[in-house]
Amino acid sequence: MTSHRHNSESDGSPRDGYLDAARECILDVGWRRTTLTEVARRAGVSRMTIYRAWSDMPALLGDLMTREWGVLVADRVDVSAAPTPDAIADAVVATVGALRENELFTRIVELDPELILPYLLSRRGRSQELILQVLGAAIATGQEAGRITDGDPQTIARGLVLAAHGFVLSAHTMVDDAVDQPALDDELHALVSRSLTP
Asked: Rounded to an integer, what distance in angstroms lies between the CA atom of residue 43 and that of residue 54?
């Protein structure tokens, strides 16, 4: 997968370059070995320049994850037209697949999985909030057109996100000679579509 900077709109601010440098560091050596000093070196700026933007690596990682995965999600869920259950299911399956294949996400899960745990066990992150906002808006738009089942759009969105967590993080544990990844993706599609059908 290509770098996020090639996949999304950028405001052209220097921070994008710093985030790109941080992304490269994490891909190369992992989160634990990435420092603000190394990010500054790769970005070609002073340490103080990076420290003025982020007080520590967790703050920088939060911005990087929001940029990387927030846009990945927003690019796959269209709220401009009233979506059908199948259209939302298509978007959820595509998003789950894109997250599973995202090189930054994969690298973090492989080397530093503890970074993901707070977002599964303790609190929602900004990326998750964006996912809920986009998905909730799509559900509400579909409801207004009578295409999506009744219910609170945010509650429905949260239920779908909870279900999708397993397909993002644990699907590989359910793949073997009897069940392959496409079959699991089809099951996710059916689960989402059926839950949204009036």
From this structure: 14
Assign residue 19 the CATH number of its domain: 1.10.10.60
- What per-residue confidence (pLDDT) applies to 78? 66
* DSSP alpha helix (H) spans, the chain: 14-29, 36-43, 47-53, 57-74, 85-101, 103-111, 117-121, 126-144, 153-169, 181-196
How far is Cα 135 from Cα 157, in angstroms, rounded to an integer?
Answer: 6
Number of CB atoms found within 10 A of residue 152's CB:
12
Asked whether 64 and 19 are in contact (CB, 8 A), the reply is yes
> Is 113 buried (19+), middle (13-18) or exposed (0-12) by CB count in 10 A?
exposed
C-alpha torsion 97→107→131→85, nearest 10:
10
Domain span holding position 16: 4-61
In a shared domain, residues 112 and 171: yes
Whole-angstrom distance, CA of residue 168 vs CA of residue 181: 11
Residues of the chain with pLDDT under 50: 1-10
- 21 domain residue, yes or no: yes
d(CA 47, CA 176): 47
Model confidence, pTM? 0.84
**Residue 167's domain is classified under what CATH number?**
1.10.357
Retrieve residue 54's tokens. Answer: 């982020």
The pair of three-digit structure tokens given for residue 86, joined into one six-digit string? 């199948």
